[in-house]
Structures are given as structure tokens and as C-alpha cells.
Write a structure and sequence with these properties.
Elements: H1 3-44, H2 49-92
Helix pairs in contact: 1-2
Length: 93
């Protein structure tokens, strides 16, 4: 295999890994907190109050983690792009 194929395979694996990680980041806090809210609602017979509150908190937590992860990736991409620009400028000189 050529290094281009290796590079393409690594990029695809990295993208799949990010997709799976993002799915867990989004799903786990919402599911766990919704379940805890449901259990608490049943325990104290409060209707859907804690289910709604905990699900909302789960959505907020998932969103915050997602934004942090995407921001980190974008910063890395920006840094890599700047490094490539510097290398191009050095080659031209």
C-alpha cells in the first residue's frame, strides 16, 4: 500500500472514531439523567417533573461537551493549516 492509501485509511478511521465518540457524548448523559429523573419521579410520585429537569440538564451537558470537542478539533485543524502555510512560505524563499 502506498502512503496515500495509508493516510486515507487513517483519516476514515479517525472520522468514524469521532462519529462514534460524538454519538456517545450526546446519548449517554441524556439517557442516564432521564433514567434517574424517571426513577426519582416514581419514588416521590412527582409526575414528570424530575424527568423533564434531568433530561434538560443532560441535553445541556451533552451540548457543552460537544462544543468543547468540536472547538478542540477546529483549533487543531487551524493550527495544522497555519503550519502548512508556513512550510509553503519557507519553500518559496
Amino acid at each position: 500500500m502506498t502512503s496515500e492509501k495509508h493516510s486515507k485509511i487513517r483519516k476514515e478511521i479517525s472520522l468514524m472514531s469521532f462519529t462514534v465518540e460524538l454519538a456517545f457524548i450526546l446519548a449517554v448523559p441524556m439517557i442516564v439523567l432521564a433514567f434517574l429523573g424517571h426513577i426519582l419521579d416514581k419514588a416521590i410520585d412527582s409526575g414528570f417533573l424530575f424527568l423533564i429537569i434531568f433530561t434538560t440538564v443532560g441535553i445541556i451537558i451533552s451540548s457543552m461537551i460537544t462544543v468543547k470537542k468540536v472547538t478542540s478539533i477546529l483549533n487543531q485543524v487551524n493550527k495544522d493549516y497555519e503550519d502548512l502555510q508556513k512550510e509553503d512560505e519557507e519553500e518559496r524563499e
